[in-house]
Write a structure and sequence with these properties.
Strand content: 5-15%
Number of helices: 11
Largest sheet: 5 strands, parallel
Structural class: alpha/beta
Shape: globular
Number of strands: 5
CATH class: Alpha Beta
CATH superfamily: P-loop containing nucleotide triphosphate hydrolases
Bound molecules: adenosine-5'-triphosphate, magnesium ion
Strand order of the largest sheet: 2-3-1-4-5
Helix content: 40-55%
């Protein structure tokens, strides 16, 4: 495998063993706040614009960015702020909601596979096949609607099989030129509450409020358990999980932008060079054009 993810304090170890309660939801001392992080992020986004152009010209790799988070974790705004400035033709964002009847008529990797980015492009998944080991693990009743031939009573091995499907899938994609970076925006329970309250208080945020989100919050501990199992089972050098502190939005956005840029900088991409024979013809063409 050519691609190896860059290291970071937020990289989930490949051998597992990460405890979710040990992961910070806030920036390191002195690194939070808007002013500095916003301007650093803007510089990074400009660099991302350039990198995407080279990625496109090079035409061998595609980039898949996967975002998972609890409700109000900041997926949408992070995606927006990191990709604002990149050529709109260079990336595509897909949000995966509750699967449709058509989607349930296929295996669980089908709907996302259809949305994978082409070479040269950045594809963003706002939620993904990882919901299959998150919300489905928390609410196992969902499995009854998935039309699976059989579901065992003891689900321990079942989740491992889903991880294995995902690991195989990601390894296959990586071997064929997809750079996969996965971000868990790790928001604290307290901060989620603050954001829900702000949605209730501010009329311009009412549309973002959903009664279901508050109900889902009651399953917080089950979700944290599912996240812990998931990140430990599925972080790999070619498809790493980064667990990003998400309580401070400007810091979170900067950190995500930084990790994307650092990973793309390390890629062996370049504008294609023109061979000397072809280049010799450029002069001919220039003369032809100027002599018109
Ligand atoms: P926002 O609320 O910011 O618009 P969202 O991603 O939360 O964005 P919603 O429509 O509120 O969008 O929620 C999507 C819901 O779909 C989530 O509760 C998620 O858990 C659920 N979901 C996604 N994938 C699956 C899946 N494979 N099986 C069951 N539920 C899923
Ligand atoms: Mg929602």
């Amino acid at each position: 495998m050519d691609f190896q993810a860059v290291n970071s304090p937020y990289l989930v170890p490949y051998q597992g063993g990460q405890t979710v309660s040990d992961l910070s939801t806030i920036p390191p001392d002195g690194q939070g706040g808007k002013k500095k992080n916003k301007s650093v992020r803007k510089d990074l986004v400009s660099e991302l614009y350039e990198l995407q152009r080279v990625l496109y010209a090079d035409d061998r790799y595609s980039v898949l960015l996967i975002f998972q988070a609890m409700d109000a974790g900041g997926k949408d705004s992070t995606i927006r702020s990191v990709l604002t400035g990149v050529n709109p033709a260079g990336f595509q964002v897909y949000s995966f909601k509750v699967p449709s009847a058509e989607e349930l008529d296929h295996d669980f990797l089908w709907r996302t596979s259809k949305r994978l980015p082409e070479r040269g492009r950045i594809g963003v998944f706002n939620r993904s096949y990882y919901e299959e080991v998150l919300v489905v693990r928390v609410h196992t009743g969902i499995l009854d609607g998935q039309k699976l031939p059989s579901v065992p009573d003891d689900l321990t091995g079942f989740w491992q099989e889903r991880y294995n499907s995902i690991l195989d899938h990601e390894e296959h994609l990586a071997k064929n030129g997809t750079i996969i970076l996965k971000f868990w925006l790790n928001v604290s329970k307290q901060e989620q509450k603050n954001r829900f309250l702000s949605r209730l208080d501010k009329p311009e945020k009412h549309w973002k409020f959903s009664v279901g989100d508050v109900k889902e919050r009651m399953y917080w501990d089950s979700y944290m358990h599912a996240y812990q199992e998931m990140i430990n089972a599925t972080s790999r050098p070619w498809a790493p999980w980064y667990a990003i502190p998400a309580d401070d939005k400007p810091y979170m956005r900067k950190t995500v932008a930084e990790l994307i840029v650092q990973n793309l900088r390390a890629l062996d991409i370049a504008y294609p060079t023109v061979d000397p024979e072809e280049k010799a013809r450029f002069d001919e063409m220039r003369q032809l054009l100027t002599g018109e």
